[in-house]
Design a protein that fits this description.
Blueprint (H helix, E strand, L loop, with lengths): L1 E9 L2 E9 L6 E7 L7 H12 L3 E4 L12 H13 L1 H16 L4 E11 L1 H12 L4 E7 L17 E7 L7 H13 L4 E6 L12 E2 L4 E2 L2 H19 L1
Parallel strand pairs: 3-4, 3-5, 5-6, 6-7, 7-8
Antiparallel strand pairs: 1-2, 2-4, 9-10
């Protein structure tokens, strides 16, 4: 396995990603990993390593900028909120991340995927909404479903997999129904796996704040990972 730090830019903003890939001569599918509201941390780097272990190029992206990492809920919210309020800014960071991924040695730019957690789940949903070139599929773990104010209207061509805690206070059942209607209207090949008795951040072993609605759920974590592995095989077959 080979790893490297990847510096890329959105205009004057420096972004620092992390790549992990098998030592292989063939060109491989590349899966971008989008971080939660805290920022680019060891969690998403571990996800990139896991993808390399599956035979893909894993690329953990940086949406906020080099070194920006929240340590409290207030700091994390301050980092995420500008992107929630300005989805054009979010789209520019998506463009920068996908452009960087295409330059990775050994990456097949015609077979791209994206996965994300929480805020990162919203990012990959927007990647599908905007039809990023080469994007075969996206897996959104405990995502925020809020669509952009003026989303594109063309059919979504990437396969969409949402892995969702049904009791997530940050993505309610009503929002889930609206998301399903949006995907259906956009003619997407979409699927939702909703896990009962499960709230937000169910894949994060450090999540333990029931009052805030973020709790790790081992069963849902394992089931969602297994479904995602099958999904990537389908996307890249």
């Amino acid at each position: 396995m080979r790893t490297s730090e990847i510096t890329y830019h959105d205009g004057s903003t420096e972004l620092r990603g992390f790549m992990s890939a098998p030592d292989a001569g063939a060109r491989l599918p590349v899966v971008l990993v989008f971080h939660a509201w805290r920022g680019h941390d060891e969690f998403v780097r571990d996800e990139a390593r896991k993808l390399a272990g599956m035979g893909f190029v894993g690329f953990a992206v940086d949406m906020y900028g080099a070194g920006k990492l929240g340590t409290t809920n207030e700091e994390c919210s301050a980092l995420m909120t500008p992107f929630m309020q300005d989805r054009a800014l979010l789209k520019r960071r998506l463009d920068a991340a996908f452009a960087a991924a295409r330059t990775i040695d050994g990456a097949d730019a015609t077979r791209m995927g994206a996965m994300g957690f929480c805020f990162g789940g919203l990012c990959v949903l927007d990647a599908a909404r905007h039809g990023m070139p080469g994007l075969r599929g996206i897996a959104a773990f405990h995502a925020l479903f809020t669509p952009p104010p003026s989303p594109p209207s063309a059919p979504i061509t990437a396969k969409v997999l949402a892995l969702h805690g049904y009791d997530d206070p940050m993505a309610t059942p009503d929002q889930l129904v609206a998301f399903a209607a949006e995907m259906t209207e956009r003619q997407a090949d979409w699927e939702v796996c909703a896990y009962g008795g499960t709230v937000h951040a169910f894949t994060n072993p450090e999540a333990n704040n029931a009052a805030f609605g973020t709790v790790y759920q081992r069963r849902a974590d394992q089931r969602s990972r297994e479904r995602a592995r099958d999904f990537w095989r389908e996307c890249f077959a």
